[in-house]
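Review box. Two proteins, two foldings.
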Amino acid sequence: MLQALGFGGFDGDVEESTVQDLVKAQQDFANGAVQPKRSTLPADAIHAAAHPFPTAGFRRSQADESPIPVMVLVASPNDPVRAGSREGERPEAASGTGLQGWEGTRELSLAGGLDPNLKEKPFEQKVLAAMDEDGDLDLPRRNNTPASQASAEVLEAEDAKTETDPSDPADHTVVETLLREPGLGTSLALLAATGRISRAELRALRQLVEQSVVTGIDYRTVGLGWHHPQSRMAYREAAHASTTCQPSRVRAERSRQALVGLARSLPEEAQASLGARIAQIFCNEISAAPEACQNATVEGCLAALEAELLLPLRALNEDRLSGSFMARTFQGDALPAGKIEAKVDEITAHVLDGTFSQWRYSNPTGIRQLEGLSEKQLALWMQPTRTEWDHGLLIHEDAPGELGYFWATKIGGPSHGFDLEGQCLLPLLCNARHKAVLVSDPEWPEYPVGRAHFRLLWTESARPVLWLETINICFDANVDPRPWGAAVLTHCARKAEAMGVILSVSAPLAPKLLEVVRYPSNVRSACDKLVLRPSNAVVEASDFLGDHDWLQEEEEITRPLMRAIYEPQLPDPVDADDACTREASDMSVQGPSTESQNSGQQM
């Protein structure tokens, strides 16, 4: 059990010269004098679904074997992907990008032709069952989080090896540089070499330094609002006014002093406990309420650091300390502040104890949202499904653990971010019916560059519907998004076919939907109402289902919505479970063509 140290920060005065030194160190970091480490650690296929490329900011963990079976959607050789071959010259931003929106929003238009030269990536992994041998849902397990194996007490032999590539500085070197403590790196390297601290703990210390000292924002002082960065890269670059302002730098200096004290005390302890100490400081840095920290685990905290969650969790938790901006809707209507704060505490507690994903689907409100699905449909919905395409394009519903959803709404938008209109992020975090389809593009290897809200809703006759919203694009990403449209539609169509449920997309997408589904005659236009069962987030947020964001604690019926509808063919309802299994089994590539194999080898 970890005890919270209090609400953020550390007591004591900070000299102006010290703050100036910290600002200079931060500028050196942003200008490349201190390079963020690119991960060279191996990752299994499941973890790679969420982080398929080396990160340019914070390092990902050495993923262990996950118990979560993943349904891999692989398009058939005839499945089209939208125009925009990556082998040709990228179109100019002002023409042919298919981008539209208002006031800086960046959304993807799916209109346009198809490129027959862009083929799916051959992927021979079979679709795995979503049930364990006992027939129970195979949910993420706390002791199999990404950081759990590497942070075990027994140090693997390779964990003690020191990386010597001068272009890829080791964690202890970066910690010494960012904390401005000469000799600290040597001390940390010795502790790692002798097994006193693990490689994962040292990596977590680096992440804690980067996220609290270098990129830290003092939300208690500056509050939440539209004055914060609008892309994940802007936070990593640490050059935005939210990060460089005096309150944020003063707080960062206090964090630096505390971390220096932590690192310097380790050699003097008979048994170093860096992981537990990092977890304690992490709880303090995010201003977590004491009750939210009661069941916190080292694994949960290290996984949160791997996912870069210090700032998202700090913003959500410190809103109550800076004016409760989340207690009002975008239109200015009052929301129950106490319920919002309690929900933030609940989210925080399940992140810290490593059960965030399980909680999303197992809380009473979440169970009610999905009530009516068969057992296999439920398992398929819960899976972090992914689809791989040629040229490295990956469409995925985050990854096991689902911690990537905290950053999902910083991909374009920009209204649903953790520190601006933060209440609008809560439905994605809290509701079992709510996911996001993410796009990872090799032209932007830093993090997922596209996202679309993805929900499981119900018709008035209690039929399940997969509801897809607009694809948004990261503001900072210089990519060609034209191949994404049909790739995302294919992903969602295959999932609907596997589950045996309706797929609903924007009405203008009907022609494109016809090109990617297996049963084109089952695509039609419809103007239907949908049922919104109570939200587990106090609020619901959608420009398509309602008026941006609103209190949603009771069941509601939407207005009539004109959409393009796809109903996969199914046998008699009594055989629906078997149909789901057969559809899922059909998704793996059976003997890819020579052309596809050659294309994959060229990658």
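Next protein.
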Amino acid sequence: LRFFIGWVVWISLLVIVFLFFFGGSMLFVLSGQCKDAELLASGKQQAVAVAIAGSSAARGAITGNVFDESMTGDGADYRGAQTRTINGRKCAQWDKQVHFRRYNSTNFPDAGLAKSFCRNPYYPGAEFKAKTIWCVTDDPERHWEECLPVGIIRPLCPRGYAIEGETARQILFGSSFVLWGLGALFVVLVLVFIPRIRLAIALNKVAARFLGNNPHTVLIPVAQGVVALLWCLGWLMGVSFLLSQVPADHTPSGYYATFIEAAGTASTCSWSEDGEDCAAGVPGECTNKWPTGGVWKDKDCERGDDGEWKCWRCWQPRYVFDARFAISFFVFLWNNAFMVALGQILIAMCVALWFFQPAETQERKSMLPKAVRTVFRYHLGSVMFGSFLVAVVEFLRYFAKYYEKQASAMKNHMAATMLKCVQCVLWCFEKFIQFLNANAYIQIALTGKDFIPAAKAAWYLILRNLLRFGTVAALGRVVSAVGVVFIITSATFCGHLTLRSMHPDVYPFVPIVIYIIIGYVVARLFMSVFTLAVDTSLHCFMIVEEMGERCENIPPELKSLVHQSSAA
């Protein structure tokens, strides 16, 4: 991977630039495409027109010769300097062409048939004549073709446009320039960030070499998955019992006269709508809290004090959430966050130990055993505290979800919408905590600090190097996507070849689906380790950068960058 990572990054950046300009060009062409004309043909003609206009402008600036490109009607009065057809074919000289000999300056002295300029020669009152300017070409497969005056990029379409609405064409036309502007801005950003891009490429090479020297590190997420699966199975067995313990008084046990009284009514409009036709929903006695049960009609009815028969009753929901479930669910969230954090700090510790080893030691010594001993002996408390913070935020988000369901059961749409917004804010905060925790674990692996000092150091490090972190993160996404696609494709291709060689008569659809799933799982496991190795290498590089020339045992991919930083 480290031998191709540079090519992958630069080619990916070029592809992004190409997509910006190609997308803008397609929108530009589509905004002026004539009816019954093919999109690619229209694009080619407009590209030719742009090239001819540019070359003519440059030639005019050098020679000082300026031609009048004005034209009216069918172009009989055109005396411009166009020498190319709409598809870029070169025009032949009128007096030397052999396909239509009668069109020459002698027979049409007033038509301006000089050199190889496009014209529309015909006699006054002629029945057969061209619709616009044209010329005889040098192409043996196309003897003549129509032209456009120099500078006309988007000709008018007398028979209409492919996009009929004028507003739609204007939107496409403006959007094309927006995409071109974004593409130009992207090019400027790439040129400005070239040093940081080179750093990101070097870090990815370092991470690839780390995985090459420590392949056992990929087993960390595998072990995480196995332990998490066993834990989830055990937790599901226990929580299923807790959920099924529905109290007898969760729903009323009395009788109700009507179905609406028991089940309630739904709102006829959304919470944001209003009007005479909108009726607010009314919660029923059986459905006014979540989880909701149901309503059934009993054959043995009860007569009320007013003499009315009451036959509708409530049935209990199949599950219910109480304090016991809340405690169990919080433990579940904490354990899951702990497993993720433990894997992150183990990988970070492996990279940190490997990064500062001499080159000869890096290749023959695995860092995983020492990383496991160090983490389990010194840093489990930090891992538990960091995962506790993540679990608390997650629990609050699910708690808001619970009350959103309660508000919906009470037909309080405004409260339900506000609680959805609270969940969104908590989700964003949760992602922030997870990001900060991952960098805090890297600082713990590098410096041995406790969680809070490490998180503080990671936060200030990120603030001081926002552009570096942003560049590495952006390119990391590109490399991760390419890596996942490559692994899935390779696994599927090799599996298919193996299947065809061993069992040529087997229908390959189901095996190919299985190969894709296996390839995706392997790719996600590998790239998760690779991404964290890149982030840890960035932290290591920044420590080396602060140390300057005093640190000798660093990967060769980063030595030149460290020297440049020290010189600066």
